[in-house]
Structure formats: structure tokens, C-alpha cells
Amino acid sequence: MISRRLLRVKVLQLLYAYYKNQDRTIAKAEKELFFSIGKAYDLYHYLLLLIVELAFVAERKIDTAREKIIPTQEDLNPNTKFIDNKVIKQLAENIQLKAYASSNTISWDDQEDYIKVLFDKLINSELYINYMNSDQNSFQEDKKFVEKFFLSLLATDEDFYSLMEEKSIYWNDEIEFIISMVLKTVKSFKETDDQDVAIMSLFKDKEDEVYVRDLFRKAVVNHTDHIELIQKNTKNWDLERIAYMDILIMELALTEIKEFPSVPVKVSFNEYLEIAKFYSTSNSSNFINGILDKLVKELKDNGSVKKVGRGLVGEK
């Protein structure tokens, strides 16, 4: 589930903390790395449960209205399209989601005020009004509504971002990543799916789990060599004046290019340039691009880059 880009970001963040911490050990840092990745997985479940919680709120409001001493016709015959949304029902009944939430104590029970605010935003939104007034009643329409809730309403809600930052320091920089994972999950649902349909696992496969551990370890082991290589190729720059995050990004890029023969150079190169746009200075991407280009050429010329696998041998 956790994308390679987010794994790279997690290692970058950990390397920053590792080199700033005087009391550091690789074992302790690795434990922190996997704890941080686990928190991202918690957030994934937390967000999936959010739309379910909002439907529960809507259902409780309908039940309360029906119990009025003198209910109106609207109270007695409410529009139940939202609470009957087939995708939300699939999430509410999903065994894997419920089991993870129960074993990890993940719920929205302690966020009653925020849920009320978000519910009000939802029911007053154009998205909700159009959906509730639509004559369509299909699984695809239900799915599209849930997708748009996450993409249009939640992803632009400043209150939501503030709450997530308060809930966990690990969630500050990864909300967009996790929302994209939630959207992939929703898009994968089929009308015939039952409560046993699998949602995303923590790692896509065992290879990703090994990848993230090795990326951190090999970055640390090769730290001195990579610093010397960067310093040699930035002679016109005082290394101490180069943004520290730029150096770490280049170190990680070099580690991946040299130590992971199945990952194409172009993929590693482009991934770390994209990460630089978000995690360093405004000019970092262009600076890193220029330096990495020289570094990769040197590594290829001296035979330090060896790629294996279909279509990768002799990669330029």
C-alpha cells in the first residue's frame, strides 16, 4: 500500500533525525522508521473510517427526527441516499477494516466536534446537494461521490489538516499520499464485493519492506563516501552552505542508484528531484538536478552503477 515515494520520504525524514541525534544507533533508527510507516497505515484506516462515521451521523439524525413528537413528512420520509451509499456500506462492513480499527484502537469517537463541523460542511456542499437530488441510483454514482468527498472536500479542508497535525507528528507531510491510497482503494471496489474484500496491505510486497530497510542502512553505511563524492563535484560551493536537506536527498539518490540494481537510474533520479520540490528550498530541484547529473555520469563511467533485470542491463 505504502508507495515507494512515501517510503523514500520516510527514509529521508529519518536520516535527517538520525544525523541530528547525538544518541543514535541504527537499530533504534530502524525501529523508528517502521513505527513511522505503521503510523501512515493507521492514517489510511482512519480516513477510510471517516466517511463511514459521517454516514452514521446522518443515520442518527434521521432516527432522531423520526422520533419527534410531531414529525414532519420530511422527517417520516427522509432522503436516505447518503446512508444507503453502497460503497460506504462496503467500508462499514469490511472485516479487515473493522479488525484493524479494533486492534489498533482507531476511531473518530473522540472527535465529535470536528465530525459535526465536517458533517455540516458536507451537507451544505454542492457535491452533496447534487448527489442527493440526482435521479440516478447506481453503484458507480455512489463510488464517484465517495471519491469526490476525499478529493474535493476533505483534501481542501484546512480544519482537517490542522486536526491531523495535532493527532500525530507523523502525519504532517503524508496526508496527500494517504488520500491517494484511499482513492485507489475506493476505485478498486466492485458492486459484487462483500465484507471479505481485501483493502491495501501495509507493504505492496516483501520486496518493498526489504527495500526501505536497505535504503536506510546503505545510506548510513555509505555516508562518508557519498559526502566526499558530493563535495568533489561541488567545488565551487561551500558544502556547509548547501542546504542540509539537499545533501541528504543527493545521498539517498546516490544510494539507490548504486545499491539497487533493479531500480532504473531514471526512476531514482526523477523521484528524488520531485521530493526536493517539497522538502527543500525553492531552488533545490534545479541545483540537485545539475549535481546529480554529474555524479551519475561519473558513477557510470567508473562502473559503480550496475543494473540487472529485464530492460535494465546497460541502461543509459
Q: How would you describe this protein?
A:
The two termini are 30 Å apart. The mean pLDDT is 91. Helices cover 67% and strands 0% of the residues. It has helices at 4-20, 26-66, 73-76, 86-93, 95-103, 112-123, 126-133, 139-153, 158-167, 175-188, 206-221, 223-232, 244-259, 265-279, 284-301. It is mainly alpha-helical and 316 residues long. The protein is elongated and about 80 Å long. It is built from 15 helices and no strands. The chain has two domains: 4-188, no CATH class; 222-301, Orthogonal Bundle (N-utilizing Substance Protein B Homolog, Chain A).
**End-to-end span in angstroms?**
30 Å
Helix content: 55-70%
The domain count comes to: 2
Unreliable spans: none
Mean pLDDT: 91
Tally the helices. 15
**What is the N-to-C succession of helices and strands?**
HHHHHHHHHHHHHHH
Looking at how many chains there are and whether they match, the oligomeric state comes to single chain
Give the total of beta strands: 0
**What is the approximate shape?**
elongated
Major sheet summary line: none
What's the alpha carbon Rg, rounded to whole Å? 24 Å
How would you classify the helix and strand content by structural class?
Answer: mainly alpha
Residue fraction in strands: under 5%
Task: Give the helix/strand layout.
Layout: H1 4-20, H2 26-66, H3 73-76, H4 86-93, H5 95-103, H6 112-123, H7 126-133, H8 139-153, H9 158-167, H10 175-188, H11 206-221, H12 223-232, H13 244-259, H14 265-279, H15 284-301
